Amino acid sequence: MLTRRGMLKTFGGLIAVGLASSAYAVGIEPLLRLRTTTYRVVPPGWPEGQKLRIVALADIHACEPWMTARRIGDICRYANDLGGDIIVLLGDYISSMRAVWSQVLPEIWAAELSVLHAPLGVHAILGNHDWWDDLDAQAAGGGETVSHRVLREAGIAVYSNRAARIEATTGAFWLAGLEDQLALRPGRRWNRFGYVGLDDLPGTLAQVTDEAPILLMAHEPDIFPQVPSRVSLTLSGHTHGGQVRLFGYSPMVPSAYGNRFAYGHVIEEGRHLCVSGGLGCSIAPVRFGSPPEVMVVDLG
Ligand SMILES: [Fe+2]
């Protein structure tokens, strides 16, 4: 039988574990941890022996104190040392979080990203937060955001429903990048009553003019069921692995498909998707079981 003293001890222990877990989830995992997650993928349509190492950074969400300019610079130098043939940035540079001391200005985070380098270059798409926090872009209902501009000015190729042919020594491939699928927020002042995507998958893939394999960058993985098998691999971010992930399950995932595309390497009907757990936080500065990561994909 549990004595009163034993009950108090158990209760106290549970509180201590709860406090320690919370401190870790707020103060350690999002701020201090960084890991590399590597996938070896040989998807159909990708020529065997056509080696390509992709290094992907997603969901930076620049803000003080959770993702400072200094931390972004450190992450970029870490990513440079991973031996990537190509570096891709998968969107959400801006933080919309309220629990911040201040935002890191776009010119500042873009300057940090400008140190990234790889033999086949650095290539970027935009995410929903890059659109949502840009009120001019919301009012215009399209065009480009501040993030598009500062990335371009930092010498980074920006893809907005565009495909480019890239010549590597091991073979050519197409890199396609979708504009964001949730770009425009609902709002009475903009006469919008739901989210509007600016993505154009058919228009993007129509730019592919030969048989070289295709890699697709799409911030939200929710487009994946519509991606044709002609695309060898889709690369996404956005979900942050749910930010809280236990035993391969994320209780909250910003996806209409729940855990189906929450994290990692997904294969459906022979089509391949790699979803990065990302680097920063959104909504709340919490990560537990989903540490900030740089995703590496080895193809061929
Ligand atoms: Fe996102």
Written account of the structure:
The protein has 300 residues and is α/β, with parallel strands linked by helices. Helix content is 24%, strand content 22%. The chain has 7 helices and 14 strands. It has a 6-stranded mixed sheet with strand order 1-14-2-4-6-7, covered by helices on one side. A 6-stranded mixed sheet has the order 8-9-10-11-13-12. Helix 2 packs parallel to helix 3 and helix 3 (106-113) packs parallel to helix 6 (146-153). The relative contact order is 0.21. The structure holds fe (ii) ion. Fe (ii) ion binds at residues 92, 127-129, 219, 238.
Q: Could you tell me which ligands this complex binds, including any ions or cofactors?
A: fe (ii) ion
Compute the number of helices: 7
The radius of gyration over CA amounts to 20 Å
Tell me about the biggest sheet? 6 strands, mixed
Average pLDDT taken over every residue:
93
Please provide the ordered H/E string of secondary-structure elements: HEEEHEEHEHHHEEEHEEEEE
Which descriptor suits the 3D outline? globular
> End-to-end span in angstroms?
62 Å
Strand percentage: 15-25%
Give start-end ranges of low-pLDDT stretches: none
Number of strands: 14
Please give the order of strands in the largest beta sheet.
Answer: 1-14-2-4-6-7
The amount of helix comes to: 10-25%
- Quaternary organization: single chain
Structural class: alpha/beta
